[in-house]
Amino acid sequence: MTTLTDQPLEEQIAQWRAYVRRRQALHGPDVEELEGHLRDQLAALTEAGLSGNEAFLVAVKRMGSLDALSREFARAHSERLWKQLVVATDADTSANTAYAEPFVVLGLAVAAALATKVPELFGHRLNPDEEVPLFYFRNASLFVLPLLTVYFAWKRGLDVVSGLWLALPFAAGAVFANVYPFRTGGDTEVLTVLHLPFALWLAVGFAYVRGRWFADGGRMNFVRFSGELVIYYVLIALGGGVLTAFTFMMFNAIDMNAAWFVGPWLLPCGAAAAVIVASWLVEAKQSVIENMAPVLTRLFTPLFTILLLVFLATMAWTGSPINVQREVLIGFDLLLVVVVGLVLYAASARDPQAPPDFFDSLQLLLVASALVVDGVALAAIAARISEFGFTPNRVAALGENLILLVNLAGSAWFYARFLRHQGSFAALERWQMAYLPVYCVWAAFVVVIFPPVFGYR
Amino acid sequence: MDMSKDLVAASATPLVLAILAEGDSYGYAIIKRVAELSGGHLQWTDGMLYPVLHRLERLGYVAAKWSAAESGRRRKYYRITKDGRAQLAAQRQQWKAVDGALRGIWMQACTV
């Protein structure tokens, strides 16, 4: 029975390999592993007396349908799903939504644009010669985020009951943004402006993951989505800036002032509609720009590490203390935000099963040096905070600093364990994911509790 | 005997972990061991083992390493971790409870 020559069998295996490689959910090493299995199976079957062809047929059949297999692989490696456009939609519904989607997006974008004009009906006029009333900034997220939530609820096929639950946070946001008697231009009002979007972003996230916050790496996909959305939004905003400049220039050329149009119409409507459009672009064109956030991370992690180390070295060398100015605390908050962002997006782009490499050590160095720098800054601020007294801004900034500090300390710990092969990278990912709601809850806390506690000043 | 898909899927984790607890192994050998243990009743589609292994790896229950096999090709070997052993112990308790309950009622049915 040993008539089989290896040549045709090898060819068949090569064909099979090429066929399997075309599956996006299956990566190189997976194919190699499956091929190894196929070969073991073939060896056993030919030993049992089957001819090469028979053995190949049986072995491939036993491997199972490739469709089912790649679906299982995609579920086991949900980050790979990101690269396809099948984020938890079934085949039949996706065909349905694909057809209607541009119209839904257009409708929602127009609705968002018009939503910014609704307050004018109630006397909140936008005048090109005056400053924009803070009312608009307080409610900025309420013009757009509910519609964005509707978009995701529709796209993910969320049931009506969950949808109604999601309306609750927005209703609460609208109440807290508008019932408090803020002193005009007070600190607490500005804090509400800055924190409300973050509090409500969690609701958008729930719609994005189809109400299943803990399932299948949905949260990580939402983090990826948020990052890409920011990148897209900045790009669209740049384009909008160019459009605005041309509007002014061209109408000036015929001696007309376009300010009445740009200030009250173009800017607010465009800014609101752009969020919806950018979200849709991120959803639809993930593969085009999917590597933006990771590329930026790879680029800036070394640079920020160098900056922090040089800063620490300089401070140690000259012995000059941190000059505690008004903005220092906020500046260091932003530094921590950047570092947390770098860690988060490095994690989101990483294959959790790859062994530790040089970049992971660099990440740990970055996190550790950020912790030291922030520790020094906090010590300086704590030493003088009694002089300053507690203002809403300082308490908010201090709270944020502590939240980010705890996150980074945890990240450093998990990174160190991972680098010493004591823990998996998944543990770090889980830590980051479990931490996400903390930011939103703190933001909600600032919006709800701070104004009355600090007397609306 | 055709086993339900859900039952096969549910039993995959404890089976794989238990087999790895016997010693490090690789995909093909694990499949063979499963067939051997179940007397051929548990028929997995061969390919399906790998997503299960990868999921366990991601959860930190098993660790994987590529090393050279006898044939000279690379082969991915799996090893159970400390977390994996803890998980195996937990699953064992659960299956014991299920087994005990079913036994209880079926024995009763026999004696009645």
Overall description:
The complex is a heterodimer of chains A (457) and B (112). With 457 residues, chain A is mostly helical. Chain A has 3 domains: 6-76; 90-290, no CATH class; 292-457, Four Helix Bundle (Hemerythrin (Met), subunit A) (Up-down Bundle), CATH 1.20.120. Chain A is built from 19 helices and no strands. Chain A has helices spanning 6-21, 28-47, 52-63, 66-76, 78-81, 91-115, 118-121, 134-138, 140-155, 160-178, 187-208, 218-253, 259-284, 286-289, 292-318, 328-349, 358-388, 392-419, 425-453. The longest helix of chain A has 36 residues, at 218-253. Chain A is globular, with a radius of gyration of 27 Å. Chain B is an alpha+beta fold and 112 residues long. Chain B has a single domain (5-111), classed as Arc Repressor Mutant, subunit A, CATH 1.10.10.10. Chain B has 4 helices and 3 strands; from the N terminus they run H-E-H-H-E-E-H. Chain B has helices at 5-22, 27-37, 49-58, 82-111; strands spanning 25-26, 62-68, 74-80. Chain B has a 3-stranded antiparallel β-sheet. The longest helix of chain B has 30 residues, at 82-111. Classes of the chains: A mainly alpha (457), B alpha+beta (112). Chains A and B meet through helix 2 and helix 4 of A and helix 2, helix 3 and strand 3 of B.
Furnish the topology, listing elements before pairings:
The complex is a heterodimer of chains A (457) and B (112).
Chain A: H1 6-21, H2 28-47, H3 52-63, H4 66-76, H5 78-81, H6 91-115, H7 118-121, H8 134-138, H9 140-155, H10 160-178, H11 187-208, H12 218-253, H13 259-284, H14 286-289, H15 292-318, H16 328-349, H17 358-388, H18 392-419, H19 425-453
Chain B: H1 5-22, E1 25-26, H2 27-37, H3 49-58, E2 62-68, E3 74-80, H4 82-111
Antiparallel strand pairs in B: 1-3, 2-3
Helix pairs in contact in B: 1-4
